[in-house]
Amino acid sequence: MLVQFTTWDIVRNLLDAAKWTLALSLIAFVLGGLVGLAILFARISKHRALQAATKAYIEVFQGTPLLMQLFIVFFGLSLAGIDVSPWLAAAAGLTLFTSAYLAEIWRGCVDAVPKGQWEASATLALSYTQQMRHVILPQALRIAIAPTVGFSVQVVKGTAVTSIIGFTELTKTGSMLANATFEPFVVFGLVAAGYFALCYPLSLYAKRLERKFHVAR
């Protein structure tokens, strides 16, 4: 029996799928931020072993496609006898991907703090931890806000790749609707509009923050 879909039916299903796209983006960004923060501290520590390990971690996740990372998480754990749902695999894969990029973004922001700030805080007999807490990180945070918000756009768009492992988000729902309605142009046009509606405000906000903090310097 052929099911007829109206334009509203398509929009309604895509709006419901957009909720999962947004939820996955938020989870990946928050958890990725927490993991990325831990990687950052290890990356800028004075322990060479930690520096080398976190550098390798960042290079692996930045140097390999997100799709391959999701495949390894989803199919690799399944081969190891661990039952992983598409939702869990998508969240874990995106969290690892996000953490690597955020850690490197934030490391760059720490490096952007003028060397004179390190020297000035050292003359006050502050320990390394005190330097980071009271002098360096507050300044790095100000620099990091705009690129961090900007990267959130990449996280939202990255959720589209999770459709390959069966996670039903905006792109996956669009593919199923296109197959059911035989109207791929309409369906994927609406999918593109959905991603634009999610990403464009973040892009504008990132540009606004960048101008604001650049002027404030």
UniProtKB/TrEMBL annotation:
It is found in: Cell inner membrane; Cell membrane. Residues 18-206 form the ABC transmembrane type-1 domain. Keywords: Cell membrane, Membrane, Transmembrane, Transmembrane helix, Transport. It is a multi-pass membrane protein. The keyword Transport applies. Gene3D superfamilies: MetI-like. Belongs to the binding-protein-dependent transport system permease family. HisMQ subfamily. PANTHER family: BLR6398 PROTEIN (PTHR30614:SF34), MEMBRANE COMPONENT OF AMINO ACID ABC TRANSPORTER (PTHR30614). This is ABC transporter permease subunit. It comes from Aromatoleum diolicum.
